[in-house]
Amino acid sequence: MDIRKLIAVAGRALPLAAIVALLAQPLPARAAETINLTAIDGYPPKSLWVKEFIEFYIPEIDKRLAKTGNYKIKWNQAWGGQIAKKKHVLEALQKGLGDIGVVTTVFHADKVPLQMIAYATPFVTSDPALVARTVDDLVNTFPAYKETWKKYNQVYLTNLAVLDTYQILSRDPIESLDDFNGKKIAGAGMNLRYLQGMGAAGVGGSLVTYYNKLKTGVVDGAMIWAEAAVTFKLAEVAPYMLRADIGTANSKAITMNADTWAKLPDEVRTAIAEAAIDYRDHMGRLAMEIAEGSYKKYKAAGGTIAVMPQEERDKWAATMPNVAKGWAEDLESKGLPGKAVLQTYMDAMRTAQQPILRQWDKEFGS
Fold this sequence. Notes:
Helix content is 42%, strand content 16%.
């Protein structure tokens, strides 16, 4: 019987002290409402950002919800292509096959082109935390960012920059720009444009395919970062690294299916959104923290590292096509604020005093 009813019934017969004792009894706790969510990515759990989604992001959401006890999430985790392959997470979230996930945006330059800002501006910064924060500032400044995601039935939460800087791994030594001539270099999307004019052929691919492509000689090298080279044991098939410090990039976005998002209570949406920003910052810090150790681990695994002379880096940056200009002008032709986004991004990098080798936004008059 409800304790209030019990008091009402007993009140006529019980002494005051007994009624007070009854009132002091705790009311039964309301059970938390359980919400089922499926998290997806095409990459396996050993990938750094997936590992941290599991070990950092999900616990951060759960911790916030536990403060009130009103809601709890029952997580269904589907990684490594269980629901969507690495290049199809965007479509899977759009269709509701997953509720929340990690979209590798570099595979979708045609659908979410504004996300390519750091790929359009190489040799600008190797600070992933700075890039990720700056991109979210752009998202909050230019409505076109979120509007683009809405077209694919998704709510944008944040972006991730999960690498310190791209380097070149190869089967045989590459130590200068001349050494690229005749080589086939794997990359993901826009960074293949960095190779134009060097006599090298860019070959599209993804992180999980590089090992076999290098082992079988389909490619001679790949643009990769040190942590991933270690995690995926690439020193076994590409024992030479050219440390060119090409720069970092925001290669990931955390999004939710818009229909799922609309059904969530405000408290749950707030927890997911706030934890996403913490996840973003955590990934940026972590990428930097483990970078130097990853270079040491690459060498310990049998790899050799050559540092590209500064003169060669300057020459590479100066002689490659203006990737940013082409990117921004293409966006403008589609009614998107490419030039303004580019200038705002570069202004942020200049304010942060980054070691910029080429002022990409200053060449539109040429």
